[in-house]
Amino acid sequence: MTKISTLIAIIIMLASTFVTHAARADDDRAIVEAFYSKLLSGTTSADLPARMAEVLAPDWQSRGDYASVAKTRDQFLKQLQGTGNILPNLTWKIEEILQVGNRYVVRGHASATPVLPFLGVEVSNRSFDIMSIDIHTVENHKIVKSYHVEDWHGATEQLKNK
Q1: C-alpha–C-alpha distance, residues 84 and 87, integer Å
Q2: Which residues 6+ apart lie within 8 Å of 119 measured at CB?
Q3: What's the CA gap between 49 and 130, in Å, rounded?
Q4: Among the four 37, 68, 81, 87, which has the fewest Cβ within 10 Å?
Q5: In this structure, what DSSP letter does residue 37 have?
Q6: How confident is the model at residue 78 (pLDDT cuts 50, 70, 90)?
Q7: How far is CA 15 from the centre of its chain?
Q8: 9 in helix, strand or coil?
């Protein structure tokens, strides 16, 4: 094999590795996007457990603060189903995604109109519109850990004061 053919073989190998990594990153980004479109915006879906299995690892953990224990996937399913009863039109949109390795930082935007009392606020036909910041870790094309902060105080203020 000549030096040129060896060099070409190395370039082809490196290019295929880059394409493979890029394809994986695209797949992982799609999983993160599905967290919002299929789970958070799909709380009333009959197939929510199957959707969760597509997006979240079986041992997925959620942390919204450091005062309580991490939430499991099963606990999150119950929470989302309860949320669907209260906020059937909950919509969660991605405004921005930043990626570093297998971690994705998402600035999100949630809106809904409660049909039952929500966070101590009686039903008023008012809606809320809040921001969230999440950090997801993806391994093997599933989200394994999520840290999140939502402006629920802002939501209750909007529901009381509009």
Answers
A1: 5
A2: 152, 155, 156
A3: 26
A4: 68
A5: I
A6: very high
A7: 31
A8: helix
Residue 6: in which H helix or E strand, if any? Answer: helix 3-34
Q: What is the model's pLDDT at position 20?
A: 46
Question: Backbone phi, then psi, for 38, in 5-degree steps?
Answer: -95, -30
* Token code pair at residue 85: 């009863």
* Averaged pLDDT for residues 106-111: 96
* CB neighbour class for 121 (10 Å; exposed up to 12, middle 13-18, buried from 19): middle
For the four alpha carbons of 76, 81, 84 and 85, in that order, the dihedral sign comes to: negative
DSSP H helical ranges for 35-137: 48-55, 73-86
**Beta-carbon count within 10 A of 2 CB:** 7
Long-range CB pairs of 62-67 (<8 Å, 24+ gap) are: 62/145, 62/146, 62/147, 62/148, 63/145, 63/146, 63/147, 63/148, 64/147, 64/148, 64/149, 64/150
